[in-house]
Amino acid sequence: MIRIENLSKDYGDVKAVQSISFSLNDGEIVGFLGANGAGKSTTLKMITGYLTPTSGNVYVENQNIVDHCIDIQKQIGYLPELNPLYTEMKVHEYLKFHAEIRNIEGSDFNEALKRVVRECGLQGVVHRTVGNCSKGYKQRIGLAAAMIHDPKILILDEPVTGLDPNQIVEIRSLIKKLGKQKLVLMSSHILQEIQATVDRIIIIDQGKIVADGTSEELIADSKGITKLTLEIITGDENDIKNMEATIPSIKVLNIDKQKNSIFINIEYQNTSDPRKDIFAYAIEKEWIITEMSFSKRNLEDLFRNLTLQKGETANA
Amino acid sequence: MHNIMTIFKKELKAFFSSPMAYIFLVVFALINGYFFNIQFFLINESDMRVLFGIIPIVYLFFIPAVSMGLISREKGIGTIEIISTLPILERDIVIGKYLAGFTLILIGLLATLIHYINLIYVGSDIDHGAIFTGYIGLALLGGVYTSIGLFSSSLTENQVIAFIIGIAIVLIFFMMDKLLFFFPASMTGVIQYLSTDFHLSNMSRGVLDTRNIIYFGSIIGFFLTLTTRVLESRKWS
Q1: A210-224, A262-276, B21-35, B119-133: the lowest-pLDDT one
Q2: Which residue in A123, A309, B18, B80 has the fewest CB atoms around it within 10 Å?
Q3: Residue A300 pLDDT more than 90?
Q4: pLDDT surpasses 60 at A45
Q5: Which of residues 21-60 of A touch B (CB under 8 A)?
Q6: Which own/partner pairs from B167-174 qualify as long-range (CB within 8 Å, at least 24 positions apart)?
Q7: What is the pLDDT of residue A314?
Q8: What CATH number does the domain located at A221-299 have?
């Protein structure tokens, strides 16, 4: 368990992190979301002992990072931003170096090596030089090094930046698998990434926490309104306009006619779920529904609102 | 101790997995060999004082070159963040890296023993004791310069800048007793005591004085402590 209390960090006059507090529990995957420069990396660097807080503290199992830095570092696996590696080493040498510093040697090391090679999918590259591996492999090597001592806590700073979509899916499923036994805290400025991987999202902006909860909670909290997109192939415009009258709980925001289909954006209060009624109405009017989905922009809107508003007030 | 050895092995392996170490050793041996041998047969004396005069000058450039990347490279490519968040004290990182750099210098120094073997064959009335203490002195001097090079390397993420800072500091220690006339008479004693040459010349004459050894030891300790503080200072940046 990690407990963060009133954590602050100043770089000269710049207040990078301003008195943030939150707790993370074992077996939880938490996404740390924020725009570039919001204070994500600085916070992670304080948790891992790379930076000392200006004020406040980080507690891991009741030990604090200022007085017990080494003890806490023993329990943490950390993948820094941009994944720096010793490129001249062979992959197994690199992992051995990490293992040796963590006092894993001999047959223990062989077992740990087998485990991380299997979990991170490094079978083909163990004897290659780190510098000659592809970016996706490098990311997995970094992750394998962070996991060599089977830590209870994994801190990953932007673990999927710069990977191609296939690699992103692989790393994502690996993180999800790890999250079953470990506390994983990963940062990202990519919303979709966080949404797809984590149980809980903490949004940080200008050094302050502006939201904390599951993605559903955050969306619901924002306005209590859900947005829905309905795609149909055929449909009379009047019928679409009359839909509001038939189903009072919904509001048709706009109708977007494309070449082959019509997109209808609908919003409704979270207290009701009018999807059944919409479907029944479509059958009655003989519409062909090709898609009915929650608007993916919801969390994005929230993120933009939370981070832009703050920016405007700061500028005002 | 365990962690120091891990860092030491990693750094030494890094030296020998790049051309760096081999270039250093070959060029070091060639330069020393050339300058020693062109004078050795002219002077026609059975000692190695010429070599002991050349090596400190070659050190001036070679040691900052060997040690310039030890920390600055990690800062440049970002691995400093990896090594600083592993459960290892900054002090152990510094000592491990220092020992690796120093070991490479010692290997280079040991290679010059070939001139000693040569001397044994062709010379007569050799003062083996003076040669022995002379080598001890050169090893200690190499240790001092390596600690200075390591310190310079911790100040920047640019290897070239680390190299230049290293040469500048090493030069100060080397030149100190040659510039005594610039200083007021009351200070000359102190300045002379601080210069490396003053202590080295004692040793190459065959005098093994604990004061000289304490001098070299404390300069090394001073710069290693300073380097450790520089590494720790990132926490409060």
Answers
A1: A210-224
A2: A123
A3: no
A4: yes
A5: 45, 48-52
A6: B167/B60, B167/B61, B167/B64, B170/B59, B170/B60, B170/B63, B170/B64, B170/B145, B171/B60, B173/B144, B173/B148, B173/B219, B174/B56, B174/B60
A7: 44
A8: 3.30.70.3190
Chain B from 10 to 69: CB within 8 A of any A CB:
10, 13-14, 17-18
Strand partners, A3: A23, A59
What are the residue ranges spanned by the domains of chain A?
2-213, 221-299
Structural domain count of chain B: 1
Residues A58-82 pLDDT 10s: 999 889 999 999 999 999 999 998 8
Which residue stretches of chain B are H helix? 2-17, 20-43, 49-67, 69-77, 79-85, 90-111, 113-122, 128-155, 159-175, 185-194, 196-204, 210-233
pTM: 0.86
Residues 6+ apart with CB under 8 A from A178: A119, A147, A154, A184
> What is the distance in angstroms between the Cα of A315 and the nearest Cα belonging to chain B?
27
* Residue span of the structural domain in which B44 resides: 2-236
| Calpha distance A263→A228 (Å, rounded) | 10
The string of pLDDT tens digits covering residues B173-197 is 988 888 778 888 888 888 888 888 8
Q: Is there a contact between A80 and B2 if contact means CB atoms under 8 Å apart?
A: no
- The whole-angstrom separation of Cα B176 and Cα B216 is 15
What is the torsion angle, in degrees rounded to the nearest 10, for the CA atoms of residue A170, residue A176, residue A182 and residue A185?
90
Say if A86 is an interface residue toward chain B (CB within 8 Å): yes
Do A221-299 and A2-213 have the same topology in CATH?
Answer: no
A52 contacts B236? CB cut-off 8 A:
yes
**pLDDT (tens digit, 9 = 90+) per residue, A166-175?**
888 888 888 8
For B191, the 3-state DSSP assignment is: helix
Can you list the positions of beta strands (E) in chain A?
2-11, 14-24, 29-33, 55-60, 63-64, 76-79, 153-157, 183-188, 200-205, 208-213, 225-232, 250-257, 262-269, 289-294
Q: How far apart are CA A94 and CA A87, in angstroms?
A: 9
What φ, ψ does residue A306 adopt, rounded to 5°? -65, -40
Find the CB nearest A73 among B6, B79, B87: B87
In whole angstroms, give the CA distance from residue A251 to residue A244: 6
Which has more pLDDT, A164 or A200?
A: A200
The reply to whether residue A103 touches residue B2, judged by beta carbons under 8 angstroms, is yes
Contact call for A73 and B82, based on CB within 8 A = no
ipTM given for this complex: 0.89
Architecture of domain A2-213: 3-Layer(aba) Sandwich (3.40)
Helix or strand or coil: residue A214? coil
What number of C-beta contacts closer than 8 Å exist between A and B? 64
